[in-house]
Amino acid sequence: MTTIDVPRATSRPKALNAIESALEQFDRAADHLHLSDESRAILRVPKREWTVNFPVTMDDGRVEVLTGYRVQHNMARGPAKGGIRFHPATDIEEVRALAMWMTWKCALVNVPFGGAKGGVTVDPRALSPRELQAVTRRFATELQGIIGPEIDIPAPDVGTNAQTMAWIMDTLSMHAGYTVPGVVTGKPVGLGGSEGRADATGMGVMFTAERALAEAGIDINGATVAVQGFGNVGEAAARLIHERGGRLVAITDIGGGVANPDGLNPAQLKAFLKETGSIAGAPGTQPIDNETLLALDVDLLVLAALEGQITSANAHQVRARVIAEGANGPVTPPADPILADLGVVTVPDILCNSGGVIVSYFEWVQNLQSFAWSADEVADRLQRVIFTAYDEVAALRESKGIDARLAAHAIAVSRVAEAQQIRGRYP
Ligand code: GLU
């Protein structure tokens, strides 16, 4: 018999106040740019947002009513773009912040997209494969008419992957009656996904971290590196940094952490993770917790987990030379000046982790043209686009004597405000 049960996620912890961080960063950029009151009023709030509640039948016959969100922050420069996350702590405020950050990220790297984000408040690890597919397909159905190749194009984020995108693409295609590859990016390569998309965010983290290390006089070859998070972003970043000669001394993931001062092997950790569900306890490693990892004396600290990891409470403990923000919003605004005083250089999230959306843009272009590029072509173009943004941020940072986060936000916000302004008022 089918019974209605309370959703699994009602006891979720409050999302980490990402919206306060996003608004503070925006206000700082708006002040720097002397942005008009009109532009501020438009850009401070999302253009559109939806909350959907939908039932899903679980394997044991119970029905759970789940909650999902899609927020389109701004579409002045093109269709909205941004991932979908499945996480127990996701709520509307977190999704609003992430959508705003996507607007700035797309503008900073100059791809013709606005910003959006989606999420379902659910722990994907607690779902069976059938339940996961049912949640995804039903959420995709709720997004019908809201997303599309010319409207808003989702992609993977925390707790989702290429398979999730394949199910969304299939669901929307079944409804359309024909295949719509451009409705999502980050699809499997066999289904119109782009070569290089799976590693793209991690590759961008590696490229930008290498540049920031070089600016600090440190060669990535031989640099000591700690990585928080071993998911899509952290694993790829760790592997690519390791290939460049970086020495991975500590990595944490959701199940624990591993350390080895002589260096960890990311391929072995990935195999161990596949077998056991966590990197914790991998042979030849010592355990390490998150707090200790964040305070390690390393050349490079890669933050590739969630927002709000370095705050005013722990920023003064940081001993890394460079922080690469593979995650969105991992350092809160009150922590920024503390890190700056310590001489820590931060590669801001909207630059550091933009490799994902850059290659998502390439995937969308390839889908619209029904023409696939080679992995080398994707990697070359990714490097060119992200280095252009890096150079622009560095030039503004130097010329105005401001930090990289403010420089990145100032470039992005001014581009979006300009597009908004040129379009004029309707009606
Ligand atoms: N979720 C990723 C991000 O935060 C990728 C978004 C996309 O490819 O659209 O940037």
Largest sheet: 7 strands, mixed
Query: Uncertain segments of ≥5 residues (pLDDT<50)?
Result: 1-15
| Number of H/I helices | 14
Mean pLDDT level: 95
Helix content: 40-55%
Order of helices and strands: EHHEEEEHEHEHHEHEEHEHEEHEHHHH
The small molecules bound here are:
glutamic acid
CATH first level of the domain at 200-352:
Alpha Beta
Strand order of the largest sheet: 11-10-9-8-12-13-14
- The CATH topology name of the domain at 200-352 reads Rossmann fold
Question: What does the overall shape look like?
Answer: globular
**First and last CA, distance:** 54 Å
- CATH architecture descriptor of the domain at 200-352: 3-Layer(aba) Sandwich
* Count of individual beta strands: 14
- Work out the strand percent: 15-25%
Overall radius of gyration:
21 Å
Broad structural category: alpha/beta
Fourth-level CATH superfamily of the domain at 200-352: NAD(P)-binding Rossmann-like Domain
